[in-house]
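Batch manifest, entry 17 of 40.
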Amino acid sequence: MKSDLAKVLHVLEGKSLLHYSLEAARSAGAEKIVVIIGHQAPMVRKEFAASGVIFVEQNPQLGTGHAVLQAKDVLAGYAGLTVILCGDVPLLKPS
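Output type: structure tokens
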């Protein structure tokens, strides 16, 4: 993207890219949304502070699989379906 800005914070149609993933998750009926943050974590927290998501920080950043593992404690005891979405894909659909 040739930018120092975290990908999830890039704006498309007036909204950060992460907004679209969160909207798709909510529209699909997500009960609990956990956002794994790393690069520019404070900026992401600030942008989505009022979104009702749970933030978990990945530090150090060791890849996608490691990022998923960071949600382990937050999801302990949860028996529902878990769906993993990327935060920089604005064309996701709830279906």
